[in-house]
Amino acid sequence: MTLRLESLRLLYPDGDRDLVALDDAALTVEAGELVAVTGPSGSGKSSLLAVAGLLVTPASGTVRIAGQDVSARSPAARDRVRRERIGFVFQQSNLLASLTALDQLMLVGTMVGRPREDRAHELLDRVGLTGKEHRRPHQLSGGERQRVGVARALMGDPAVLLVDEPTSALDRERGRQVMTLLREITKESATATVVVTHDVEHLDLADKTVTMRDGRTSKPLADHDLLPARKAPADHPPRP
Amino acid sequence: MFIALRDLRFARGRFALLGAVISLMTLMVVLLTGLTSGLGAASVSAISALPTEHVALAAPPGQTDPQFALSALPVDTVDRLGAQPGVRAARPLGISTSRLTAGDKTAPVSVFGTDSSLLPDQVRVPDSLGVAPGTEVELGGQRLTVAAVGDETSFSHLPVVHTAIGTWHKIARSESLTGVLLELTADPADPADIGAATGTLVLTREDAYDAVGGYAAEQGSLTMIRVLLLIVSALVVGAFFTVWTMQRGPDLAVVRAMGASRGYLLRDALGQAAVVLALGTVTGAAAATGLGLLARQAVPFVVDGGTVLIPLTLMITVGISGAAIAVRRVTTVDPLTALGASR
């Protein structure tokens, strides 16, 4: 299913005036496509993710999933769309401290009405965490926590995967592993994946890259359009 | 309850502490309820066991409240009350305090002169005095024979013995009556009118409790302590869940961002409070019941469904109320804060 963001405008009150967070921002992500959104701090990356994830309502513009405008719905309906069609992977994983890795996934399963433990085990196995299902977040490494976060986001079988700075708390190698995992999962699950990142080192793993500046989105670049300096280092050769 | 139950396991130290506090508060409330009920029974159980629904006492002067201890009515009041419209029957009531001696045992008692089935030289005593039927006893200078044993009641914290009214006059050395027991017709006149026509004050049995010396003050003090304990319980539970909810704010934002509705989070949080309250209060009530069963051998204490289940239910109700006010914050968590590095 395609995620389409059209002419988004988002304003935040800032004293006596409004701060423009998004200004005619647009983005289209097809099913099975991973789009990286990058740009300097304050350029509107997180705002774009918040609007795409229905966490805030834009002043104008639309968010469409599979052609349906989901941005203008009631708060309860937006909750339902987030629950059933959108998966979030947060910065630093944001796992719940009291829940084991398996429980993190089962929580999503109970929320969407499909508490299937076999599916949770399958996803944890997919992200390489077999044998660590019953560990709590503090018993996992940063990379493992982020992989639990990825598996959790997939538990509801979402059409759209929104990923917020997944490598910011990881070293280069683990960051690359997580980005590779996201790319593979995007292809396997045919999700429309948006990854907001500062990290230009792994942009070669994206199908397209969008740069943001002052709330505006650039024309998407395919990874072969990227400058050589932003390509992957030699030990991580580009995909064929 | 998915998150709630796992939080309970994860933060079991904190919840055990809260549960222990709730348990102790419940223990105190149940013990005080049993004691209040026991003291109340020790004061007025003989009044609640009176054979008629109404009793007439001497109208007190001015605006003062009626009291059994101060009430004195002429003997002919019985006939005057019996002649009033709406009165089916009127019987004399004498109440006094005296000393009962049986062999080498002596006990202070309240003497009720109401039992017309007893002969002038007979007395009916409660089991607790340990006197067998047929035993000769001395009561207020009168030598009487125990005709029957039973009817464990008390008045002003003294066990009640029953005599005929004529015997009571001799024991109390009084020509007058304490009051008159009234049996009203099915469609009686206004009791206040009956009282006004005869210079008396006609009370129901329940209203007459307050005419027993010290009863209202005793019950009022203990009830006030119980109410304060319930308020403190609500505040303690509310304060705990306020802090707990604030600590969980970031986690709740993540769950909201993942699509959990406000209702889902509220049900989860209230369910958590209900589990802690149920475990804490049931433990406290069970301990109080055990202590109460031991204590009632030494002090007036009632252990029954009313003195255990009512305070238990009240504790859960006020606790849930306190928790509900505290956890309503979960509905205002902003899921947007789950994004970025704000955690």
From TrEMBL, chain A:
Instruction: Check the record and name the SMART domains matching this protein.
Output: AAA (SM00382)
Recite the UniProt keywords alphabetically: ATP-binding, Nucleotide-binding, Transport
Region described as Disordered: spans on this chain: 214-240
ABC transporter domain ranges (all copies): 3-239
- Which Pfam families does the UniProt record give? ABC_tran
MF term (GO), any: ATP binding
User: What protein does this entry describe?
Assistant: ABC transporter ATP-binding protein
UniProtKB/TrEMBL annotation, chain B:
Q: How does it sit in the membrane?
A: Multi-pass membrane protein
Asked whether the keyword Cell membrane is assigned, the reply is yes
User: Where is the protein situated, by its record's location annotation?
Assistant: Cell membrane
Q: Which InterPro entries match?
A: ABC-4/HrtB_transporter (IPR051125), ABC3_permease_C (IPR003838)
Can you give the residue ranges of the ABC3 transporter permease C-terminal domain?
226-334
Q: Origin, by domain of life?
A: Bacteria
| Short name of any one Pfam family annotated for the protein | FtsX
Question: Transmembrane stretches, by residue range?
Answer: 224-244, 265-288, 308-327
Keyword terms: Cell membrane, Membrane, Transmembrane, Transmembrane helix, Transport
| Chief site of localization | membrane
This chain's protein is named ABC transporter permease
According to the entry, what is the taxonomic lineage of the organism? Answer: Bacteria, Bacillati, Actinomycetota, Actinomycetes, Pseudonocardiales
